[in-house]
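Figure 2 data, in text form.
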Amino acid sequence: MIVDAQGVPLALTIMTGSAHDVRGAVPTLDRLRIGRRHRPGCLVADKGYDSRAFRSVLQARQIRAHIPERAFFGQRRRRGRPYLVDQALVAQRWVIERTFAWLNNSFRRLRIRYERLPHCYEALCILGCSLICLNRLLR
């Protein structure tokens, strides 16, 4: 899921439970429909999205990546690269967690996936995201 700075969902992709997060990142970016004038300036993600391929996709789309680097058991320090973590960006990652909490508290069926068919589960997720957007508009 991709959200804006206020936690409003912008794009959503359903993946299997065993798939790594970075595999679903590019299809989720493809679902993001924003005009050229309002392209996202940066993407804040956690360490699970640290890969060269994903960073090159973001660079090709002219989106700055604020992703902390994973420490591969000290290998980066041996190569001379410091382990960089920007604490201001770590403080911004709670927005996506809050959005997932809104979804889980509003729809109990999303917390435990009862639907066997992926398109039924995706429909419920889209319904929950649209209610979050509606709630944000009514405020």
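Caption note: The mean pLDDT is 81.
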